[in-house]
Amino acid sequence: MAKRVVITGLGAVCAIGKNKEEYWNNLIQGKCGIGKIDLFDTKEHRTQTGAQVKDFHPEKYIPSKKLKRMSRTDRMGVIAAQEAIRDSGLDLEIENRERIGVLLGAGAGGMFEAEEYHRALLTKDLKKAKPSLLISHPPCVTTDYIAKEFSLKGPRSTIVTACSSSATSIGYAADLIKDGKALVMITGGSDALCQLTYSGFNSMRVVDKDRCRPFDKNRTGLSLGESAGILILEELEHAKNRDAKIYCEFLNYGLSGDAYHMTAPHPKARGAIQAIREALRDAKIEPEDVDYINAHGTATPFNDETETLAIKEVFGERAYKIPVSSTKSMVGHCLGAAGGIEAVATALAIRNSMVPPTANYETEDPQCDLNYVPGKARKQEINIALSNSFAFGGNNTVLAFGKYKE
């Protein structure tokens, strides 16, 4: 019999919460964390907004000696991992750390600090041009820091597939448990805002000047964000033996590639359709079983339209009955961490029987005509939920979660 994988711990740092409780409470209230960015100078860009983590004080959680060499991405990731492990109740003093691994999704890594180094070089400010700013430049470093922080010696890897990175990492982490290569995996992702990414999305003119409005007729683009969303995946019997709290079960996932365009989705949503169908098939779920979909929901015109098309193609008439919401309307598009922070929301939605809303939605779009849960959370039993991540390059990942049942 295949091993079952459950979620026993969650950690979150994002624009609307610096822990999972604050994140969830603001999420169901429809609080939008998108506002003016002050992390770096945005005056040369067409937009100055994003979902920045404000009043961030990592020194409360990490000793100053360690902080000096950590990037913003590392700090958020380590803090979210600390919370997730604490939340899980794992006693690392008695656990076999060779059976606990770390597998994260990543994006820009320590690019923000690398930019600081480059600016200092250009201005010949050699006191600020510290080579230590480059230590966290590789995307894998956050994974390494978390493993080192907790002396975890199990499988370790980092996945970089644009905006689906951390969603894919969750699926691969579950595979390691199912294959017997680990008992526990720390997974999800962390990604911080940086000027290079911000400039790139501005140059493509795919950002909203105010706040993103997923699925709204008047949507003009996404809002960039930053976050860390960490999950503890655990083999079911191991979790039961230590009487762990179980948020939900990780059922399976679907992967596909569009092979179409570097930034645009396939106009007929072929890759998205394939990924959803694969997730349902491998999780042994029927379309009528799905109670909620945490959408990719970027608020770019084509992405929202093709995601809607994919859902209608897979679910038929039932598509109109399934609540479909975009939490990016509140936390922004967190790129390499998007799948992680959205998976945390999905697990909490199942646990609390509550569907998060889509914020900033005002005007119906005939091409996007599903049930997007505008503005207000909805109390509802959720037995099965999907979380969609459809990334640049056509990297599609769909995660399937279920209410835990004996």
List descriptors.
single chain, ten-stranded mixed β-sheet, alpha/beta, 18% strand, 406 residues, two-stranded antiparallel ribbon, Peroxisomal Thiolase, Chain A, domain 1
Structure description:
- The protein has 406 residues and is α/β, with parallel strands linked by helices.
- The protein has 12 helices and 14 strands.
- The chain has helices at 20-28, 64-67, 72-88, 111-122, 141-149, 165-178, 195-203, 236-241, 270-282, 301-315, 328-331, 338-352, and strands spanning 5-13, 35-36, 49-50, 100-105, 156-159, 184-191, 227-235, 248-257, 292-294, 324-325, 354-355, 378-379, 384-391, 395-402.
- The protein has a 10-stranded mixed beta sheet with strand order 5-4-6-7-1-8-14-13-9-10, with helices on both faces.
- Helix 3 (72-88) crosses helix 5.
- The chain is globular, with a radius of gyration of 20 Å.
- The two termini are 15 Å apart.
- The model has no long low-confidence stretch (mean pLDDT 96).
Topology:
Blueprint: E1 5-13, H1 20-28, E2 35-36, E3 49-50, H2 64-67, H3 72-88, E4 100-105, H4 111-122, H5 141-149, E5 156-159, H6 165-178, E6 184-191, H7 195-203, E7 227-235, H8 236-241, E8 248-257, H9 270-282, E9 292-294, H10 301-315, E10 324-325, H11 328-331, H12 338-352, E11 354-355, E12 378-379, E13 384-391, E14 395-402
Parallel strand pairs: 4-5, 4-6, 9-10, 9-13
Antiparallel strand pairs: 1-7, 1-8, 2-3, 6-7, 8-14, 11-12, 13-14
